[in-house]
Specification:
- With 225 residues, the protein is α+β, with helices and mostly antiparallel strands.
- It contains four helices and nine strands; from the N terminus they run ααββαββββββαβ.
- It has helices at residues 8-16, 33-57, 100-103, 204-212; strands at 60-66, 81-87, 107-108, 123-124, 134-141, 155-160, 171-182, 193-200, 216-220.
- The strands form three sheets. A five-stranded antiparallel beta sheet has the order 5-8-7-6-9. The protein has a two-stranded antiparallel ribbon with strand order 1-2. Strands 3-4 form a two-stranded antiparallel sheet.
- The longest helix has 25 residues, at 33-57.
- It is rod-shaped, with a radius of gyration of 42 Å.
Length: 225
């Protein structure tokens, strides 16, 4: 007795019609030129911004830097100023080098130390130190009558120190005088120091009288700026 077999063709046909062979149609990929263009623009924009930042970081402007101590109320002079290059985007209210002519006609509003970048708030058009009721007095002092290292802008006490033959006691003539300028000790052989101080005009005659007889000494006030 023969066993009936189905034709191979029928089996193949049955296999093709099975669930595993039923695949969903794949849609063709859509090209999106707008998105591609946007990506390119973003890349180029980022590169441009980076380039601008690098270029701006290299921008420099001329500003004014103080080279020596300037006391509050003291007038600016050319020798105190120097040109320095700084970044243009520092955010500091600096005074441009082009305005140095205006600066030399103004006064320091506060004591300014060497190496300080000058800002607009550090200057003033008027000075209380050199205003009405004030006088500048020159003092030629010998060793022992002034401490070493006194500089322009320091604060000192002006003291009357009587000679041994004179009767009287030492006393303070000016409590806090501003050192307006200091002289060149080399011109006097290094044996004396010449300074100019700002005092009340009412005190200047007495200070000058004692200074002429060598009875003046000054004491530095480091804490008074």
């Amino acid at each position: 007795m023969r066993t009936s077999e189905k034709p191979v063709a029928d089996n193949a046909a049955a296999g093709l019609s099975g669930p595993a062979s039923r695949k969903l149609p794949v849609p063709p990929r859509e090209r999106k030129p707008a998105l591609a263009a946007l990506a390119v623009l973003l890349i180029l924009g980022g590169a441009l911004a980076t380039t601008l930042l690098v270029l701006r970081s290299g921008d420099r402007v001329s500003a004014i830097r103080i080279t020596q101590q300037v006391g509050a109320g003291q007038k600016f002079v050319d020798g105190m100023l120097e040109e320095v290059k700084i970044a243009s985007d520092t955010g500091v209210d600096y005074v441009p080098w082009s305005r140095r002519g205006e600066v030399t006609k103004s006064f320091a509003a506060v004591t300014i130390l060497p190496g300080t970048l000058l800002t607009n708030r550090m200057g003033s058009k008027a000075s209380d130190e050199l205003g009405p009721g004030k006088a500048t007095v020159g003092l030629a002092l010998k060793p022992g009558q002034m401490p070493a290292g006194i500089e322009q802008g320091d604060r000192v006490q002006v003291v009357y120190v009587p000679n041994r033959t004179a009767q009287g006691q030492s006393r303070v003539l000016a409590e806090s005088a501003l050192v307006f300028s200091t002289g060149d000790k080399s011109r006097t052989g290094g044996n004396s120091g010449q300074i100019t101080v700002i005092v009340d005009s009412s005190d200047s005659p007495q200070i000058l009288a004692y200074a002429s007889s060598g009875e003046i000494a000054v004491a530095e006030l480091p804490g008074a700026r």
